[in-house]
Design a protein that fits this description.
It is built from 16 helices and six strands. By secondary structure, it is mainly α. Strand 5 and strand 6 form a beta hairpin. Helix 6 packs across helix 8, helix 7 packs antiparallel against helix 8 and helix 10 crosses helix 12.
Amino acid sequence: MSDDGREQTGHERVPSRQRRRFPGISSRAYEHPADRSALVALRKLSGFDTVFKALSGLLPERSLRLLFLSDSVRVSERQFAHLHDMLLDACYILDLEKVPPMYVTQDPQPNAMCIGLDEPVVVVTTGLVELLDEEEMRAVVGHEVGHALSGHSVYRTILLFLTTLALKVAWIPLGNIAIMALVTALREWFRKSELSADRAGLLVGQDLRASMRGLMKMAGGNHLHEMNVDAFLEQAEEYEAGGDLRDSVLKILNVLPRSHPFATIRAAELKKWAESRDHQRLMDGHYPRRSEDGDASVRDSFRESAASYAGDVKSSKDPLMKLVTDLAGGAGDFGGRVRRGFYGFRSPAPPKDGSRPGPKDGPAEGPHGASEQDGE
């Protein structure tokens, strides 16, 4: 690299504005604990992904590459040059040595993806390019480069392959139940891997408000003057805390078939991580290196994942999660709450003046005139 920070290759690889760079960074630095534990375990299966990559060369990946080459626009210095600069920036900041090919495909639906086994390919739709401004788009490109660095496309395809294989033995008694459990777990990992990639997007863009705006636009379209990031985050809090057990069950049913978390939840999770000590340490240059990936402990990774889930349950305001916490803590009011039905598990609505209800408010009356206290 030359004195002015440019590589001697004819291509500028420095960010378009001053940003921190993370030489040799391991994807473990930004991965959600549940995502990281799965990836660490799969990486220990030495040779398996190599064999799978070799087999994949005979499968649809070649067809997809030819399809994008023939019917989409390849990003380069001459085509969508601003996206090309963003891609180089993202790979420079996350120290991804091989820049993946990137294509823009005609589709009004805003979307982006990182696909491919042997070599990742980034694809963005025209709907997304037209929706986002430069800094918002930079976070999306960083998100997809994060997928590439984590190897999500490889391991996702491996697990999908295993799921398809399992379908062939569905005739075994209880086989359908086992397969549904596998698919449910797979989708849960997909959702956590998206949270990981959101963090990578923040590391690349290094502009939290831009990341928030991008998620908000994905939910509400290109009417930024009509939207507010803080109000959008309040929706996530209301979604988590509101309602009773019926709403908790409906939330679970709504999210199970999805491969991505809801937009408000992604925004809230990213903001929480941006304000965490882990993020601050990473920005200060303290992060795991790629050279240490082989020494990562599967046991420690699963322990961190379990602790993360336990922490989420403990801190959650969702009625069902609070019930789980109460049961774990031996709450004595459980029988009374069951007798009062679903309303006995309702989260208390915040007062209109924003203050918290105190003892002077007295017990609320239940649906049948009974005194109702949650004991929380």
